[in-house]
Amino acid sequence: xxxxxKRIGVLxxxxxxxxxxxxxxxxxxxxxxxxxxxDEPSALLGHFHLHSDEADNLKAxxxxxxxxxxxxxxxxxxxxxEIAKTTPVYPGERSLEVAQHRGKxxxxxxxxxxxxxxxxxxxxxxxxxQAVNVIGVPSILKTTTEGYDGKGQFVIKTDDQVEQxxxxxxxxxxxxxxxxxxxxELSLVAVxxxxxxxxxxxxxxxxxxxxxxRYTIAPxxxxxxxxxxxxxxxxxxxxxxxxxxxxxxxxxxxxxxxxFANEMAPRVHNSGHWTIEGAQTSQFExxxxxxxxxxxxxxxxxQPIAAMLxxxxxxxxxxxxxxxPNAHLHLYDKEERAGRKLGHITLLSDSQExxxxxxxxxxxxxPL
Amino acid sequence: xxxxxKRIGVLxxxxxxxxxxxxxxxxxxxxxxxxxxxDEPSALLGHFHLHSDEADNLKAxxxxxxxxxxxxxxxxxxxxxEIAKTTPVYPGERSLEVAQHRGKxxxxxxxxxxxxxxxxxxxxxxxxxQAVNVIGVPSILKTTTEGYDGKGQFVIKTDDQVEQxxxxxxxxxxxxxxxxxxxxELSLVAVxxxxxxxxxxxxxxxxxxxxxxRYTIAPxxxxxxxxxxxxxxxxxxxxxxxxxxxxxxxxxxxxxxxxFANEMAPRVHNSGHWTIEGAQTSQFExxxxxxxxxxxxxxxxxQPIAAMLxxxxxxxxxxxxxxxPNAHLHLYDKEERAGRKLGHITLLSDSQExxxxxxxxxxxxxPL
Lengths: 368, 368
Fold this sequence. Notes:
The structure is a homodimer.
Chain A lengths: L6 E5 L3 H10 L5 E6 L11 E4 L5 H9 L2 E4 L6 H8 L8 H7 L2 H10 L7 E4 L2 H11 L3 E5 L9 E4 L5 H8 L4 E5 L5 E9 L5 E3 L3 E6 L2 E7 L6 H17 L4 E10 L2 E8 L9 H4 L4 H9 L13 E8 L5 H5 L4 E5 L9 E9 L2 H10 L7
Enzyme class (chains A, B): ligase
GO molecular function (chains A, B): 5-(carboxyamino)imidazole ribonucleotide synthase activity; ATP binding; metal ion binding; phosphoribosylaminoimidazole carboxylase activity
Pathway (chains A, B): Purine metabolism; IMP biosynthesis via de novo pathway; 5-amino-1-(5-phospho-D-ribosyl)imidazole-4-carboxylate from 5-amino-1-(5-phospho-D-ribosyl)imidazole (N5-CAIR route): step 1/2
């Protein structure tokens, strides 16, 4: 045990916990996980406590931990509140509460002057009809809570689809959001520690397919210094407002009217995976530093341009990846399954041209 | 489990095993360790099997593993031979046998035309006296087996010290080596896989204090292409001769007569730790790739110059390290103790000047 060693308890045991641990051990930290199966990606990387109906296993994790963090914005808020009575949980419950409810999230954006799509929270078909009348079509109907990778969403393209939409995902609280006509999707990963120190990674460009992130270009090309600063000011406002400790990610739309906030994630983010090799300090290490009360590390990129390609559903020709000198493979040790993120590849490059050629050579990993 | 996933059993559970695991998980590998205490650096990073007098725990590791590797050249050769009957062990027993006996090692160098100091294996005071008469003083007396970080060595400076030397470390087989007047100490880390593919990292310069490596400059400055190729040809000969699979390190003296081989280590090496951030593929990842039958990764440096500083005995002002944008901290989670390696720091830089300024600012980590 060194002076900075802490025992970190992670609620969840997926690939994010796995990469947190891989980044945290070199800082002398120890890890414990609270997961649903011994086969999960993090299970071998620390003490493993099986999630069960009995509270004992969760108590064992909390007893072990100096600090608790979580992998997902879908983490049970009540559980976090209960733990926080005895052990610090970072990010805090306010970040979690806001991030797990699209209505509260958008309201916070609005309140803080962060541009975002018009929206309305609806609880019935009638309210939905009324909201569509105001917001118009096309618009996107989503569950206010849960749902990720495009699940629990319905795009209302014409006025006569309202009933169909309600039938598809209604019967619960929903949010209707105006469709934002965007050039591209960007995201900003930021980090803040308890001392209030903040760091921002460069804006990156994300390309989704069927609601799943397929690749990220880092940094996003043709982003002016002003746009970067604008995005930083938005997320900085959120970090302070939420008294956020740890990594926070803001997904943004680039439109002809400037940046629009889409949603935030109170955690390390898929669009930040390129930082493992691509930045001086990875998002995972900076999250660990932040929640352990350490100074934050440099968020500067180590090369002109990088890309992150997700490995989705099937493992694909990874031998090809292993043979590329500038490619880095990350497998999460998960079984193949439709729509599942099994790993990612980082490509480091000196020029956009060379990078795009490399991406092209790995097109087996990209959707048709 | 992906197509390339293997279960790797490591004999030992120290910092080398720890860094192997941190590099191997992203390739989808799983790890098991055979160690002497649950507090060892690798203990939390995989299945842990406690070393005991009972053979069951070792059997459990072997049963778990698809492939076995080891952390130290002091690994019991009989144990490796026994395991090899049922499970592949890389590097093989021949590499281990040669590396753990300084007499066999030097004989191999000589046989293969790799320049090294004159030497003689001695088993008695008389033989030692005779050897000193031939080899002269100053010369270095060492145990033929075991001993690392300068332990088990005696420098014979004058003819009348022969008895004193024998008394200090004799009563067992020893090797007397002529003193080599060298400019500096270099080392070459190389890797070979079962398909015979070989890769070489750049030569690095090592600075020791009291027999313990304190820092490494990578690449070693003012090394001609010819000297690099010369070193590569030496280690390549060894890799082939030993049918070595995995990382092999060759320590060399740079003298006015060219390179002299000092000793080899059949494993990842302290002087290769800079590769974690400093090379496209770290020595740890390449060792894992080699023993798992995967293609080897690029050994190219990612920046003009880097340094690795060992953290020895006490943890030191690591807060300072965390605040340097280009510094990377690696702690092994070990208790402070005189002469013990507790961690290391990697510094990445664009110029020798900037690097040396950074090293100077961290002089608290260097011996006086």
